[in-house]
Specification:
The radius of gyration is 16 Å and the shape is globular. 31% of the residues lie in helices and 25% in strands. The chain is built from seven helices and nine strands. Strand 1, helix 4 and strand 2 form a beta-alpha-beta unit. With 212 residues, it is an alpha/beta fold. Helix 3 crosses helix 4. The strands form two sheets. A seven-stranded mixed β-sheet has the order 3-2-1-4-5-9-8, sandwiched between helices. A two-stranded antiparallel ribbon has the order 6-7. The protein has a single domain, classed as Vaccinia Virus protein VP39 (Rossmann fold, 3-Layer(aba) Sandwich), CATH 3.40.50.
Length: 212
């Protein structure tokens, strides 16, 4: 991370502080997540040649743990805004590198075969999304995965007693429009009433750079 004069959004401040620490405790109680392993197995089966992956906003690393179980040889990296979560990530032992700070201040020194978010864009200030799309695009050499709550038009939803902290919209559509050198590879829906591997209700979109 490099120094920045950018003003931190209220959403970033919330997740970097005690609110983010509280999320860690809730997240810990939900592990292990074999449904998450099945989720990533489906998506990764639609990729090829992935040897490095970067997750933005992994918290304590449940997604990366699922991927590591599937592809233990793949190099895994993380960018995490919450200091407590970042320290926990460093203790996992299987991550190649952990960058602590805002994803918006991340300037990749290299490209990764796959960059992704899962339940992160929904908590970002909408004004910051174009910059976030650019960071994810710049950091990826091939694939970009967005797994977020979907809505055809932007809408804000109250979240744990807070307003303007959870947003639904067509994140992938905005990404594709902003970066026309990417194409949609596949997409799907995770459902809380799935008979085998239930998860929260969200939609995922896998995209690939075509001008590589």
């Amino acid at each position: 991370m490099s120094e920045t004069n950018r003003t931190q959004s209220e959403q970033e401040a919330l997740w970097a502080g005690n609110f983010g620490d509280d999320y860690i405790q809730r997240n810990d109680r939900n592990n292990p997540r074999w449904n998450s392993v099945a989720f990533f197995a489906r998506i990764l089966s639609r990729t090829s040649g992935v040897r490095s992956i970067l997750e933005f906003g992994p918290n304590v690393g449940s997604n990366l743990d699922s991927i590591h179980r599937l592809l233990p040889q793949v190099e895994l990296h993380a960018v995490e805004i919450n200091p407590t979560a970042a320290e926990r990530l460093r203790g996992l032992g299987f991550l190649a590198e952990v960058h602590q700070g805002s994803a918006l201040d991340f300037h990749p020194a290299r490209a990764y075969d796959l960059t992704f978010t899962k339940g992160v864009l929904i908590h970002m200030n909408p004004d910051d999304l174009p910059s976030m799309y650019d960071v994810m695009h710049a950091a990826s050499s091939r694939y970009i995965l967005l797994a977020e709550y979907y809505n055809p038009t932007p809408v804000a939803v109250p979240y744990r007693g807070h307003d303007n902290q959870l947003f639904k919209r067509d994140f992938a559509g905005e990404f594709l429009d902003r970066h026309p050198d990417t194409l949609l590879v596949d997409y799907g829906f995770a459902y809380r009433r799935d008979n085998t591997f239930p998860m929260d209700d969200f939609t995922w979109f896998l995209m690939e750079k075509v001008g590589r």
